[in-house]
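Hi R.,

As promised on Friday, here is the backbone we talked about, encoded as structure tokens. Could you run it through your design pipeline when you get a chance and send me back a sequence?
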């Protein structure tokens, strides 16, 4: 590993620590009932974001950068109950830690992903 790669990994690790501290200070309600996750994580170019809805309802799924700016709206519609998967292309994103938030029937669930290049 070269010096540039080591510096990049150190910067990513530092950003992740700051981001984790930021998320824990937000105090959003958490719920694992929708099983929100993505694979692979860390993300090089694309990832699959999946979740399971207990019943039909309105779903909003958005991606945010470390500063809380919305970078993508993936879903904003009514969906049936069951397992849903969305292929997310992270090619246009800079490396760093991102959060993705799913709102389902006024229930908020968030998770994090790390984009590496």
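Update: got your reply. Pasting your designed sequence below so it's all in one thread:
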């Amino acid at each position: 590993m070269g010096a540039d790669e080591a510096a990049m990994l150190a910067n990513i690790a530092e950003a992740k620590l700051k981001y984790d501290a930021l998320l824990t200070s937000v105090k959003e309600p958490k719920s694992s009932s929708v099983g929100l996750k993505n694979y692979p994580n860390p993300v090089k170019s694309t990832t699959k974001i999946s979740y399971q809805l207990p019943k039909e309802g309105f779903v909003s799924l958005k991606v945010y950068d470390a500063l809380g700016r919305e970078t993508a709206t993936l879903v904003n519609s009514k969906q049936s109950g069951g397992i849903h998967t969305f292929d997310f292309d992270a090619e246009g994103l800079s490396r760093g830690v991102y959060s993705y938030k799913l709102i389902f029937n006024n229930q908020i669930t968030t998770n994090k992903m790390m984009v590496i290049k």
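One thing I noticed while checking it: Residues 26-32 have pLDDT under 50 and may be disordered.

Thanks again,
M.
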